[in-house]
Write a structure and sequence with these properties.
The complex is a heterodimer of chains A (235) and B (269). Chain A has 235 residues and is mainly alpha-helical. Chain A has helices spanning 10-34, 55-60, 67-95, 98-101, 107-118, 133-157, 163-168, 172-200, 202-207, 228-234, and strands at residues 2-6, 41-44, 47-51, 212-216. The longest helix of chain A has 29 residues, at 67-95. With 269 residues, chain B is of the alpha+beta class. Chain B is built from seven helices and ten strands. The chains are: A mainly alpha (235), B alpha+beta (269).
């Protein structure tokens, strides 16, 4: 028999979806800014594998020569990004939802089992409540990353007035690199996240819009027959 | 209007109370409400974005070329940041050895070609209409201050560089420009008036703001703004005007080259 199981509270669903367009605009306007001094590359042992970003990429997204516009958009939407993050984190703390979110002492071992399961190398996934161990780690990490973007962002935005933040980030130059690296992190997270959501299916996806999952609850018989024989068989 | 809403809510309550919904009904009802609000909100968000993206651009003036709502936000951000601003917040300084030997230079607007240093005079327009013409030797005789700091360009690059000159605040005190420091803005322009900046007085009077005549302990070369340039560590490079020709003071924003082209007027760090 079908039953409703509550999963995501309203505020968590809203902040989740509101974050999507905000972060998209922040990344886009961030690209408009980054283009003006696009010095970062991905190199190992002096061999450059990738340059951020190739010309075709800029051209496809109409990025070049829009620094002033990028800054103006970035410094508006930074407020929404911070406010939305503040709402989510405050709610998670006050409501007690953090218990479902933060990794616990089993999470790191279990996350490995989840990974093996997802890669079809292990049959059974470890038991889970709202989030499995890998989700706990990933979703907590993304919140910390968001906080990191805020701090590194402020460190670049006003490096003299917020000089303690700039110091905390290892200086202005490094703060800009962190700020960029975190953004690349979001994009990678997004790719994995979307693949996982598609694989997890409709019930899971709906729960982030409607708040609940539909589960199949087999009703317990009113009279439980205690039978030694049947217990033995069940074993 | 109130009556209608009350009636409606009564009817609604009655209906809900009338019959308990089956699980299936609850599911489809909640889905309908959630997906419905999701669609409405997504539509509103998209509409809001299109409105902002296509919002009118401000008319050309002291600031220009930015979308009107975005310019309003830049100006609001400026107010908030100026509330936090303090002349006790200093830019980080470095040992001399860390300064770049080859100092980056980005633009020649207003400072292209050579300048006759001996004939050059700094024109200071006082608020009473009086004009001072000051030669470079007179400025060099004032107490010298050096700074090695991380110069920051609005484009995103930064470079540790070493500058020497007179503190702007010392300069103001020496030439008895006290009445001028009470005004809100300083304007500076190149001799050919091709490049110009406006700076709020607190930033100009910051203890690390210099009228610089040396880089790496040598007189400024032409490309770095010989004979005198502004070094203002609490601003992006765009405000660090090279080859200063004239200085003026006002209570309104002086014209500013990049603010006219969509950039934030304040451009503070």
């Amino acid at each position: 028999m079908k039953a409703i199981k509550e999963k995501h509270p309203l505020l968590m669903r809203w902040t989740h979806w509101v974050n999507f367009p905000i972060l998209t605009i922040m990344i886009w306007s961030g690209l408009l800014i980054y283009w003006a001094s696009d010095t970062y590359t991905f190199s190992i042992f002096g061999v450059t594998f990738f340059r951020f970003f190739p010309q075709w990429f800029y051209d496809a997204l109409h990025i070049p020569r829009r620094l002033a516009e990028g800054m103006a958009f970035h410094f508006l939407f930074m407020w929404f990004f911070a406010l939305n993050g503040f709402l989510y984190v405050s709610y998670t703390i006050i409501s007690g939802q953090w218990r479902e979110l933060l990794p616990n002492r089993h999470s790191f071992k279990e996350a490995w089992q989840v990974l093996l399961h997802d890669l079809h190398l292990r049959k059974m996934a470890p038991p889970q409540n709202k989030y499995n161990a890998a989700q706990r780690i990933a979703y907590t990490a993304i919140i910390i990353m968001g906080f990191g973007s805020l701090i590194t962002g402020l460190a670049i935005y006003k490096p003299v007035q917020f000089n303690y933040l700039t110091w905390l980030c290892g200086g202005y130059h490094l703060a800009r690199i962190w700020h960029f690296a975190l953004t690349i992190g979001y994009v990678l997270f997004f790719v994995v996240h979307v693949v996982q959501v598609v694989l997890a299916g409709w019930n899971n996806f709906r729960s982030v819009i409607s708040g609940f999952e539909v589960i199949d609850e087999t009703p317990q018989p009113v009279i439980q027959i205690k039978n030694d024989e049947s217990n033995e068989k069940a074993e | 209007m109130m009556k209608v809403t009350k009636k409606l809510s009564k009817i609604f309550k009655k209906r809900v109370a009338k019959k308990e919904l089956t699980v299936e009904q609850t599911i489809s009802r909640r889905n309908f409400i959630s997906f419905g609000s999701f669609a409405v909100l997504a539509g509103a968000a998209w509409g809001g974005w299109r409105w902002l993206y296509k919002s009118p651009v401000e008319p050309n003036g002291i600031t220009g070329q930015a979308h009107l709502p975005l310019r309003a936000v830049l100006n609001t951000n400026e107010k908030l940041v100026r509330g936090l601003y303090s002349n006790n917040n200093l830019v980080k300084t470095y040992p001399k050895e860390m300064a770049a030997k080859v100092v980056r230079h980005n633009s020649d607007i207003g400072s292209a070609g050579l300048v006759d240093v001996d004939a050059w005079k700094l024109t200071v327009k006082k608020s009473n209409g009086e004009v001072l013409n000051i030669g470079i030797d007179e400025i060099r005789r004032l107490p010298k201050t050096e700074i090695v700091y991380d110069f920051k360009c609005v484009e995103g690059w930064d470079q540790i560089s070493h500058w020497g000159g007179v503190k702007f605040s010392d300069f103001m005190a020496h030439f008895k420009l006290d009445a001028e420091t009470a005004l809100e803005y300083v304007g500076m322009e190149t001799p050919d008036k091709q490049y110009y900046v406006g700076i709020d007085m607190p930033s100009a009077m910051h203890p690390q703001t210099l009228l610089a005549y040396e880089v790496n302990e040598k007189p400024l070369p032409p490309k770095h703004g010989a004979p005198l340039r502004l070094i203002i560590p609490v601003k992006y490079g765009i405000k660090n005007l090279k080859r200063i020709g004239s200085v003026n003071f006002s209570n309104t924003r002086p014209r500013d080259y990049w603010a006219e082209q969509g950039y934030d007027y304040y451009a503070g760090l």
